[in-house]
Structure formats: C-alpha cells, structure tokens
Design goal:
With 136 residues, the chain is α+β, with helices and mostly antiparallel strands. It has one domain. It has helices at residues 63-79, 102-108; strands at 17-21, 25-32, 35-38, 40-50, 55-60, 87-90, 93-99, 114-123, 129-134. Strands 1, 2, 3, 4, 5, 6, 7, 8 and 9 form a nine-stranded antiparallel β-sheet that branches. Strand 8 and strand 9 (129-134) form a beta hairpin. It starts with 16 loop residues before the first strand and ends with a strand.
Length: 136
C-alpha cells in the first residue's frame, strides 16, 4: 500500500475535506486539483515522550503544524457532534497522544523526529474519535 503525502501543510485547504458517514465511522477524503485521496496524509516534526506505560505524547515542535491541526480540529468539531480533538495539552505543551500498541511501539522505538500521519477515519459513537494512522 502506498500513500500520497501532502508535504507542506500550509497548502491544505480545509474546504477540500469531505466527510462520508457510515454506520460505525466517518470516512475522511481530501480532493485537490481533481485528485481524490483517501484520508488526509501529512507530516509533522515531533518530539516523542513516553508519558506512561499506556501512552506516548508527541510534542509538535513546529508552530505552523500546531496551528494547522488546531484549525483541522475546529473544522471537524463544527461538522461532527462530540468530536474529540487531535491536538492535546500535556505538561503545558501541545501535541498528539498515541495509546501504546504493537504498531505504535514499533514506529516509536527509534524516536523519529518527523512523523507521517494519515487521518482516514473517525470512529462514530458518543464521542467521535479521530483515528490517526502512522505511515512512517
């Protein structure tokens, strides 16, 4: 499987994001210049911190990336009731929390300084939780 990555998040237009509703989830698509992508793939610089035996905190070191993810959260929050935000605060820093599983542990073992992520689905329920896939 391959992914098309948007290298510069400043070029992402939120109005090009579409959300399709299914029984148990919402699917995110991104259409730019007549190219339809399953999900929204982007990169971000990161500082990975293990905060407990169950989760990692990925501190976003670039203010433009924090700003983009905050705008993306605001946009999805307008579209979906009880949307759970991607951007989280931990120890007065902002970033993304990942719960530990085999994939997360494998991807984070070498503590990469840049992550490639894909927001493809949002689980549907009382809280609508975004699912971020770690591409690399």
């Amino acid at each position: 499987m391959s992914n098309l990555l948007i290298k510069n998040i400043n070029t992402i237009s939120l109005s090009d994001i579409s959300i399709s509703e299914y029984q148990n989830y919402y699917k995110i698509n991104y259409c730019k210049d007549n190219l339809l992508m399953n999900g929204l793939s982007f990169s971000c610089k990161s500082d990975i911190i293990k905060v407990s035996h169950t989760k990692y905190f990925v501190k976003l070191s670039d203010p433009n990336e924090r700003y983009f993810i905050n705008r993306l959260d605001d946009y999805l929050n307008m579209k979906l009731l009880n949307y759970s935000r991607i951007l989280q605060e931990y120890d007065k820093e902002y970033g993304i929390i990942f719960h530990i599983n085999n994939i997360v542990s494998e991807k984070f073992k070498d503590t990469p300084t840049e992550l490639y992520l894909n927001l493809k689905y949002i689980n549907k329920g009382y809280y609508n939780n975004p699912i971020l896939h770690i591409i690399y």
